Amino acid sequence: MASLSLESIAAEDFEALFALRMAAMRESLDRLGLGDVQRSRDRFTSQFDAQRTQYILRDGERIGFVLLKPAGDHLHLEQLFIRPGAQGSGAGAWVLDWVKSHGQDVTLSALKLSDSNRFYRRHGFEPVGENELEIEYHWKAPQ
To answer: What would the mean pLDDT of 111-122 be, rounded to a whole number?
Structure first.
């Protein structure tokens, strides 16, 4: 069985993380007509937080990253990306278990038409709103 863990990133990892994010999102972005790389870079730059972002490692290999931020009385899962080829291996579910283990409600958003919507719903996230491009989700921590 693969060993999964988290590892801190450095600010210098920006380009590698951006490339991983683009690879993971390419199909979803294309479905929505959002293939503009500069727009994606600008959005990622505005969300980048080296202190809170962590690599996801499988047997020591970097296969993705996660950004979990405090947001008042809950947590916000800002980023969760697993590189193509490593998706479907249980790493995303492992990360969500880690997120939920904090014992707080969790919010996130996912692009419409993205396969990630099925993934989040399967893991107990309920849709609570949407805009032109994204669906907003909430997971309520057990009391």
So the answer is: 91
CB 57: neighbour CB atoms within 10 A? 18
Count how many domains the chain has: 1
Contact present, 117 and 28 (Cβ < 8 Å): no
Range of the domain at 123: 4-139
CATH of the domain at 10: 3.40.630.30
Q: pLDDT, tens digit, for every residue of 57-70?
A: 999 999 999 999 99
Beta bridge partners of 58: 4, 61
Q: Is the pLDDT of residue 24 over 90?
A: no
Which residues are paired to 129 by β-bridges? 136
Q: What is the DSSP string of 96-143?
A: HHHHHTT-S-EEEEEETT-THHHHHHHTT-EEEEE-SSEEEEEEPPP-
| Residue of 104, 90, 89, 86 whose CA lies nearest to 140 | 104
Q: Which long-range contacts (CB under 8 A, 24 or more apart) does 65-73 make?
A: 65/9, 65/17, 65/20, 65/21, 66/6, 66/95, 66/99, 68/99, 68/102, 71/107, 73/104, 73/105
Record the pTM.
Answer: 0.90
